[in-house]
Design a protein that fits this description.
Length: about 270
C-alpha cells in the first residue's frame, strides 16, 4: 500500500472515530482530541475491531517541552490518531475550553486495554523497556485477564535504538508478522512516539499505544505514586522525590514552559 493511501486512510479513521469527541482543545498549539480514559478505551477497541490501526499519545508538559524543538517528534504528533491529556497542568489548561477533559495516562490505559483485547481475542505485543520488565509486565497482564490475553511477542531493543533506523523497520515487520492488533510501546518520549508513527505509516494494522514507564510500574521495578498524590495532581512530586537527579532538570524545563504558557495567556487581550 502506498504511503499516501495509508495516511489518507488514517485521516478518515481519525475523523470518523473522534466524531463524538470533536470539541478537542489546543494546548500550546497541539491538539488533544480524546477527553477521558473511557473514551480512549472505546476508541482503541473500535480501531482494533476494524483492523485499521492507530496511534495513541498522552500529552504532558515534558512532551510540550520537546515539541518546541524536535521536528521528528512534531511530525509524529501531527499524525497521531488519538491524543489524551496527561498531567494535572495540561488538564487544567485544557479544561478552560473543554470541560469534559480528564487526565488519562498510559499507565492507566494499559490494563483496561489488555482486558478489552483479551475479551475480543486480539493479540498483544510488548515493545521497549528491558527483558525483565517485559517478562514481569506480561505475567501481571496475563494474571489480570485470567490467562485469556494472547501476547504475540515482546522485544526489548538496545539502548541506542534508532526509532527510524533499519533495526526499527525489522521490529515493525516482526510486529506485523505476529498478527498483533495492540502494541504497547514502552520507550519513553520522543522515541516511542516516533517509532509508533513510523510503524503506523508503514501500514501495520495495529494500534500503537505509547505508555512510557507503565511497564516498570506493573512489573514492580518502580513504585507509582499513591492515589492521593495522583488525584491531587502531585504525582510529579512523588517521582521527583524518588529520582531527583534524573527528573530534576526535566521538571525544571517543564515548570519554565508552564510559566511561559500561563504568562502568554494573561497577556492576551480580554473581551
Amino acid at each position: 500500500m502506498k504511503v499516501s493511501s495509508i495516511l489518507s486512510t488514517q485521516d478518515m479513521v481519525r475523523e470518523q472515530m473522534t466524531s463524538d469527541c470533536s470539541d478537542g482543545v489546543l494546548i500550546d498549539g497541539w491538539r488533544v482530541n480524546v477527553p477521558t480514559e473511557s473514551a480512549a478505551i472505546r476508541l482503541v477497541a473500535e480501531a482494533m475491531a476494524r483492523g485499521a490501526g492507530c496511534t495513541l499519545f498522552t500529552l504532558n508538559l515534558d512532551h510540550l517541552v520537546k515539541l518546541r524543538s524536535e521536528e521528528k517528534f512534531q511530525r509524529a504528533y501531527r499524525e497521531a490518531t488519538f491524543v489524551t491529556a496527561d498531567g494535572a497542568p495540561v488538564v487544567r489548561i485544557g479544561r478552560r475550553t473543554w470541560k469534559a477533559l480528564e487526565r488519562t495516562t498510559g499507565a492507566d490505559l494499559m490494563l483496561p486495554l489488555c482486558q478489552a483485547a483479551a475479551q475480543a481475542n486480539r493479540p498483544v505485543f510488548l515493545f521497549g523497556s528491558s527483558d525483565d520488565v517485559l517478562a514481569g509486565t506480561a505475567k501481571v497482564l496475563a494474571d489480570a485477564t485470567g490467562g485469556r490475553l494472547h501476547i504475540a511477542g515482546n522485544v526489548a531493543p538496545p539502548r541506542n535504538f534508532d526509532p527510524e533506523g533499519e533495526l526499527a523497520d525489522s521490529y515493525i515487520e516482526e510486529i506485523r508478522r505476529s498478527g498483533a492488533r495492540l502494541c504497547f510501546v514502552l520507550l519513553g518520549a520522543p522515541k516511542q512516539e516516533i517509532f509508533a508513527a513510523r510503524a503506523l505509516r508503514s501500514g501495520v494494522g495495529c494500534c500503537f499505544i505509547c505508555v512510557g514507564a507503565a511497564g516498570d510500574f506493573l512489573a514492580g521495578q518502580s513504585i507509582r505514586a499513591p492515589r492521593f498524590f495522583q488525584r491531587a495532581g502531585l504525582e510529579w512530586a512523588w517521582r521527583l522525590a524518588h529520582e531527583p537527579r534524573r527528573l530534576g532538570p526535566r521538571y525544571l524545563k517543564c515548570a519554565l514552559l508552564l510559566g511561559q504558557i500561563e504568562l502568554t495567556r494573561w497577556r492576551k487581550p480580554r473581551r
